[in-house]
Amino acid sequence: MLSLSNYGMSRERGFLASFDPGAVELPLRLQPVREMARAIPQLICTGRVRALLERLPLIDLNEFCATASEAEQRIAMLHYSFMVQTYVWGEAEAPRALPACLAVPIWQLGKSLGQPPLLPYSSYTLENWTLIDPAGSIDLSNVRVLQHFDGGMDEAWFILIHVAIEARAGEMLDEALNLIGAADAVDPAEAKRCLSAMSKAWDDVNAIFDRMPERCDPYCYFHRVRPWIHGWKDNPALGDGLIYDGVEETGGAPQAFRGQTGSQSSIVPAMDALLSVGHAADPLRSFLDELHAYRPPAHRRFIEDIRAASKVRNFIEHSGEPDLKMLYNDNVAKLAGFRTRHLEYAASYINKQASHNAGNDPDVGTGGTPFMKYLKKHRDEAEAHLLPV
Fold first, then answer.
1. Which domains does the chain have, with CATH numbers?
2. What distance in Å separates the CA atoms of residue 289 and residue 293, rounded to the nearest whole number?
3. How far apart are CA 284 and CA 55, in angstroms?
4. Rounded to two decimals, what is the model's pTM?
5. Which of 118, 224, 241, 289 is the most exposed place for a label (fewest CB within 10 A)?
6. What Å distances lie between residue 275 and 164, 224, 286, CA to CA?
């Protein structure tokens, strides 16, 4: 039977880091990296952040990647990825190349961790928090952000809302595996219990998502938070991409990678896989398939294993139990509701904002896609999977 522990996950944390990111120590030679990364909010104010970042020593991390724990590598990735984004987007014109002092280490870390060499959702959210009270729970009253760009309240709240959602989704993911077991055992009573628990978890997740406007203003998000998380694929500010100086295997050619986006979170695709919510073969499907490679390998494997194992929809559809079908539909509807809320936020936080910056187009998502069309399609496809009762 599938278990969260097989993927480094837990009911209490879901896809969040299994370790406390704030408690991870790095080797002495990486202290200048950590200090520079933590100073980013102050360095941005100088107007010469690139020159300051270029002072970093070029540190070969091959030995570190071979011997360090995954937790240590992920915290190193956290700091380097924020510095990479700051270098690219910290001044008016985007650069053609990333200096070797940033390009080589993040390339090595990305290769070791199985993720592209820029800021992924995992670094921005899953490993970018620490508990205020170590004995307390992971919720909005007891977490703070470790690594910032601008460092304001809007940025911190945007990240922490996602941290809290990921933590609360842990129960849902655990019950999803129990539901697969119930379907395999043809156990309607257990399936109802699992779906009921998942529905309550969805209510909490959506309630947390609803709190975004409390401390994250749409104008501040668009102008102070969003600009830092863009990538360099399908981005007019960077054309063919970014050259990674010093990385021999690229041959000096520009590299194009998608920016950090909430679509890299594994919650929704895991629920799609569980409930057999499919998406038609089109540019949206291709985009989602491409984003899959940006997730941590264990999370990719979790989604793939659920997709391969789940017989939930077929079991419920042929169960002859209206109550079970209603609970299934309730979960599909709440999944669609989450997508609807995302669509509403995209409209108010991005699409309605004006921009004169080619790299921060209000009609293009941070992943490099026409997001409004895609989000609507996602929502509609989820709703189309409701079962007749």
1. 4-383 (1.20.58.480)
2. 8
3. 41
4. 0.94
5. 289
6. 23, 37, 20
